[in-house]
Design goal:
- This protein is an alpha+beta fold and about 120 residues long.
- It has a domain of about 80 residues: Ybab, Chain: A, CATH 3.30.1310.
- Helix content is about 55%, strand content about 15%.
- It is built from 4 helices and 3 strands.
- A 3-stranded antiparallel β-sheet has the order 1-2-3.
- Strand 1 and strand 2 form a beta hairpin.
- Helix 1 packs antiparallel against helix 3.
Protein backbone atom coordinates (compact mmCIF):
# COMPACT_ATOMS: atom_id res chain seq x y z
CA UNK A 1 0.00 0.00 0.00
CA UNK A 2 1.34 3.40 -0.96
CA UNK A 3 1.89 6.11 1.63
CA UNK A 4 -0.47 9.03 1.46
CA UNK A 5 1.31 12.22 0.51
CA UNK A 6 -0.80 15.36 0.48
CA UNK A 7 -0.35 17.58 -2.53
CA UNK A 8 -0.30 21.35 -2.54
CA UNK A 9 1.46 23.90 -0.38
CA UNK A 10 3.38 22.60 2.57
CA UNK A 11 3.16 24.02 6.04
CA UNK A 12 0.54 24.44 8.70
CA UNK A 13 -2.93 25.02 7.32
CA UNK A 14 -1.71 25.22 3.75
CA UNK A 15 0.12 28.51 4.27
CA UNK A 16 2.80 27.49 1.81
CA UNK A 17 5.52 27.03 4.40
CA UNK A 18 4.93 30.40 6.08
CA UNK A 19 5.49 30.51 9.81
CA UNK A 20 2.06 31.32 11.25
CA UNK A 21 3.53 32.78 14.45
CA UNK A 22 5.82 35.10 12.48
CA UNK A 23 2.86 36.13 10.33
CA UNK A 24 0.74 36.81 13.40
CA UNK A 25 3.55 38.89 14.94
CA UNK A 26 3.88 40.88 11.70
CA UNK A 27 0.14 41.60 11.68
CA UNK A 28 0.21 42.64 15.34
CA UNK A 29 3.15 44.97 14.69
CA UNK A 30 1.39 46.56 11.73
CA UNK A 31 -1.82 47.04 13.71
CA UNK A 32 0.09 48.60 16.62
CA UNK A 33 1.84 50.99 14.23
CA UNK A 34 -1.51 51.90 12.69
CA UNK A 35 -3.02 52.59 16.13
CA UNK A 36 -0.11 54.91 17.00
CA UNK A 37 -0.42 56.70 13.68
CA UNK A 38 -4.17 57.20 14.14
CA UNK A 39 -3.63 58.59 17.61
CA UNK A 40 -1.12 61.15 16.35
CA UNK A 41 -3.27 62.29 13.41
CA UNK A 42 -4.95 65.67 13.68
CA UNK A 43 -8.09 65.80 11.56
CA UNK A 44 -10.00 69.05 11.15
CA UNK A 45 -13.69 69.11 10.35
CA UNK A 46 -15.21 72.42 9.29
CA UNK A 47 -18.62 73.98 8.81
CA UNK A 48 -19.95 77.31 7.63
CA UNK A 49 -17.00 78.00 5.39
CA UNK A 50 -14.56 77.43 8.24
CA UNK A 51 -16.19 79.59 10.92
CA UNK A 52 -16.50 76.46 13.07
CA UNK A 53 -13.65 73.92 13.25
CA UNK A 54 -13.42 70.69 15.19
CA UNK A 55 -10.06 68.95 15.57
CA UNK A 56 -9.88 65.28 16.52
CA UNK A 57 -7.45 62.41 16.21
CA UNK A 58 -7.90 59.16 14.32
CA UNK A 59 -9.46 57.54 17.40
CA UNK A 60 -12.28 60.12 17.37
CA UNK A 61 -10.99 61.90 20.45
CA UNK A 62 -11.82 65.61 20.23
CA UNK A 63 -8.68 67.72 20.57
CA UNK A 64 -10.24 71.15 20.12
CA UNK A 65 -13.14 73.28 18.94
CA UNK A 66 -12.68 76.70 17.36
CA UNK A 67 -15.50 79.19 16.73
CA UNK A 68 -14.67 82.40 14.87
CA UNK A 69 -15.37 85.37 17.19
CA UNK A 70 -17.56 87.12 14.61
CA UNK A 71 -20.03 84.25 14.90
CA UNK A 72 -20.48 85.08 18.58
CA UNK A 73 -21.04 88.84 18.09
CA UNK A 74 -24.70 88.34 17.18
CA UNK A 75 -25.34 84.88 18.61
CA UNK A 76 -27.87 82.57 17.00
CA UNK A 77 -27.88 79.45 19.19
CA UNK A 78 -29.69 77.25 16.67
CA UNK A 79 -27.30 78.16 13.86
CA UNK A 80 -24.28 77.59 16.12
CA UNK A 81 -25.64 74.20 17.16
CA UNK A 82 -26.16 73.21 13.52
CA UNK A 83 -22.65 74.34 12.59
CA UNK A 84 -21.13 72.41 15.49
CA UNK A 85 -23.00 69.24 14.53
CA UNK A 86 -21.86 69.63 10.91
CA UNK A 87 -18.22 70.24 11.91
CA UNK A 88 -18.20 67.23 14.26
CA UNK A 89 -19.74 64.99 11.58
CA UNK A 90 -17.25 66.27 9.00
CA UNK A 91 -14.33 65.47 11.31
CA UNK A 92 -15.76 62.01 12.13
CA UNK A 93 -16.14 61.24 8.42
CA UNK A 94 -12.54 62.22 7.75
CA UNK A 95 -11.28 60.20 10.73
CA UNK A 96 -13.18 57.10 9.58
CA UNK A 97 -11.82 57.50 6.06
CA UNK A 98 -8.27 57.80 7.40
CA UNK A 99 -8.66 54.62 9.47
CA UNK A 100 -10.23 52.74 6.55
CA UNK A 101 -7.36 53.75 4.25
CA UNK A 102 -4.76 52.52 6.71
CA UNK A 103 -6.61 49.24 7.26
CA UNK A 104 -6.84 48.75 3.48
CA UNK A 105 -3.05 49.09 3.25
CA UNK A 106 -2.57 46.30 5.79
CA UNK A 107 -5.17 44.12 4.04
CA UNK A 108 -3.44 44.69 0.71
CA UNK A 109 -0.11 43.60 2.17
CA UNK A 110 -1.70 40.44 3.52
CA UNK A 111 -3.35 39.62 0.20
CA UNK A 112 -5.59 36.53 0.32
CA UNK A 113 -4.68 35.90 3.96
CA UNK A 114 -6.73 38.96 5.00
CA UNK A 115 -9.94 37.08 4.18
CA UNK A 116 -8.81 34.06 6.17
CA UNK A 117 -8.10 36.30 9.15
CA UNK A 118 -11.49 38.01 8.95
CA UNK A 119 -10.10 41.39 7.96
Amino acid sequence: MAKYRPRGPRGIGGLGGLDPMALLQQIQDQMAAMEKELESLEIVGTAGGGVVKVTMNGHHKVLGVHIEPELLEDPDPEMLQDLLVSAFNNALEKAKKAADERMAQIQQQLGPLAGLLGM
